[in-house]
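Below: protein 1.
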Amino acid sequence: MYYFTFTMNSRSIFSTLFFVLFYSIAFSQVTVNINSGNPNHPFPQFYDYKGGTSLASENGVGMPHAEMEQRIRDAYKIMTNSMTYNVNNGGVYGPVTVAGVKYIMPHDVASGADAGHCTCVEGDGYNLLAAAYMADKATFDGYYMWVHDRQFQKTKRFIDCVTNSPGYSYSPGISGAGSLGAPTNVKGGGRRNREDGVGDP
């Protein structure tokens, strides 16, 4: 009887772990591609600040360059777990590819995340800077294309060549609101600057 109970409990545990693993893979976040695209400045770049030394030349106690590099890589992988290929495409979440580039957006509740992540301009900047620092061209391009189509006002979107907010009151380019017009196929972000008055959820 004890063996049977143990076996059943083991099967339940393994089934649960398999389900969690399958779910994680099925709704996987972006693939990390550090040093992709033959970068001119590959990661890592350990340089001293001008006029002084830093951890680039003076290792911290018990913290060699190899460990610093690994910690940065691990942190970047954790950061990309808040991104997804499962982008909002006209209210339907799924992959979007334009000119061979997969769109990437912050992983939100509607796209399958446990909690929504920032879809603000500041958060976009952090994500793009991190991808650039890690020389992750695939992630940078995918995230940039989503940001471009979502936030650049008076600018033609990559996905459908429709101009975002042609009547926008200010100069072309990125706005703090991050919103698209009614016919757009890739949505996300705030409610301001929408000419149709419709905001994203």
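Below: protein 2.
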Amino acid sequence: MRQRSAAVAILRRSTVVLAFLLAPFAGTQAEAQQLPDTATAQPVILQRIQIPSELWDIATSMGDRLTTAGNERLTLTGTLTDKRGNTPVVISTQLPSLFRYEELDGKNKKIVFDGSRATSSAGSLAEDDLNLAETFFSDSAENFLYSLKGGGSLRRIGGRFRTDDGKAPKYAGPYWDVYELEAAVGLRSDR
């Protein structure tokens, strides 16, 4: 049996906020960047009864990707900045369990998760590769909501958290709702 991992999601009211930025977003290479076994992937359809009512607005603010069969794939094209510098990348995910990461810098490094195991074009997967895949797939807003359908346990930490020290009398910044989710991490057997 897989261990379970806890993740904290911080959601801004009426807006889905992710802890990473990848810009610009475009899906122009979706057909060229095929995910493994897309024809046999289970359709992802979230129904209102499957998630807490306070999260339904967040689910629907992402469009119909989570509520209409056939719209499960998300392709991001942009630049990843890390300790190696800037690298052009294409990241494709398809819930419930498909993931592909490809660097477009001439080295063409690829990380693929087919629903049961992760592989890399470099041979063995480094810890950094697994962390990257987990960040873009397991830690996504879509997977956060989908995990609730699969039996994930959700705990509300609180609402209306602010990003300042709490002393500004006319605070105009965003307010955040904070949740803790405990769910299996499909990409990793160690979490």
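The first strand starts at residue 4 and ends at 12.
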